Amino acid sequence: MIKNPGRRRGAALPALLLAMVLPGLAGCQDTTEPVVRIRIATGSPTAVYHAFGQSLATILNRELPNIQAEVVVTAASAENIRLVGGGEAELGFTQADVLPAAPATQPTLAAVARIYDDLLHLVTTAASGVHTLADLRGRQVSVGAPGSGTEVTASRLLEVAQLGADEVRRERLGLDDSVEALRAGQIDAFFFSGGLPVGAVATLAAQRHVRVVDLGAWTAPLRAHHPGFYVSRDVPRSVYGVDPVTTVANPNYLIVRADLPELLVREITRLLMQRREELASAHPAAGQMSPRSAINTTPLPLHPGAVAWYHAAKP
């Protein structure tokens, strides 16, 4: 059983208050205790956002009264921004580089936390002959699903490397479809941006001889063209059992509708931080979170409820 020192305070959150301040989210279960729906926009079922989101939904359902949290499978970052900003989800995950560079005058989005870094994977078969980014010239490559952070980062990388659409034949496939296309020989390589380890890549590496291509030399050129986010991170041999590489990484944020009430977002922030060990058991990437690093969510402002919790916690 998980020890739960914060349960009493979370349980004191008034369900009726939530229903009053969230009229667009509450669905009546009965006349006295309406249920507040929290939709969490995630990503592929075999990727990190989904595992993280499912664990977070379990925690919210268990510890906040009259909350009905559920995950939504999406194409990830760009679609999640659209869903949360448009009121079709309350929470979501996104890469930092997909966010608008300047906040809107009347923002529809705010941040709960910076959660972990996404690492850009370029995965190919060991026999493909693809050893460097330049080797993609003339190849069939998946750059990620439409609306995904992978597509944004991979497209920027190919642009910086001067590998245009006439030189790299691009497919726009999600993670699971990319893996299957590589297995079937329909593509030569695929990009995917995710926290370590990416489950679908780990499964593929256990079944086939694959290579993760080193992209470390491209971090500085990417950062020069798109300042603010990109850093180099290592993928050690222990992650996938293949040769270690360095690649491009950028932060992930948990975002929230800007109009959600401060009390609710404060409680979500509290549970996100206080249940880090449980979240990390769902996926190791969640173990990277800390209150000190979570508050750095440029260019997106923190939600006032998140600010209130961090201020009280003094990260």
Question: How would you summarize the topology of this molecule?
Answer:
Blueprint: H1 7-11, H2 15-21, E1 26-27, E2 35-41, H3 48-63, E3 67-72, H4 77-85, E4 91-95, E5 109-125, E6 140-142, H5 149-160, E7 169-171, H6 175-183, E8 189-194, H7 199-207, E9 210-212, H8 219-225, E10 231-235, H9 237-240, E11 245-257, H10 262-274, H11 276-282, H12 291-294, H13 304-313
Parallel strand pairs: 2-3, 2-4, 6-7, 6-8
Antiparallel strand pairs: 1-2, 4-11, 5-8, 5-9, 5-11, 10-11
Helix pairs in contact: 3-11, 10-13
Keywords: Signal
Pfam family, one: NMT1_3
InterPro entries: TRAP_TAXI
Quick rundown:
This protein is 36% helix and 22% strand. The protein is of the alpha/beta class and 315 residues long. Helix 3 (48-63) packs across helix 11 and helix 10 crosses helix 13 (304-313).
Provide the CATH superfamily of the largest domain.
Answer: Periplasmic binding protein-like II
Q: Residue-averaged pLDDT, rounded?
A: 90
Just give the CATH class of the largest domain. Alpha Beta
Beta-strand level of the residues, as a percent range? 15-25%
Number of domains: 2
Shape: globular
Write the CATH fold name of the largest domain.
D-Maltodextrin-Binding Protein, domain 2
Number of helices: 13
- Uncertain stretches: 1-12
CATH architecture of the largest domain: 3-Layer(aba) Sandwich
| Separation, N- and C-terminal Cα atoms | 28 Å
Order of helices and strands: HHEEHEHEEEHEHEHEHEHEHHHH
Radius of gyration: 20 Å
Fraction in helix: 25-40%
Largest sheet: 11 strands, mixed
The total of beta strands comes to 11
Broad structural category? alpha/beta
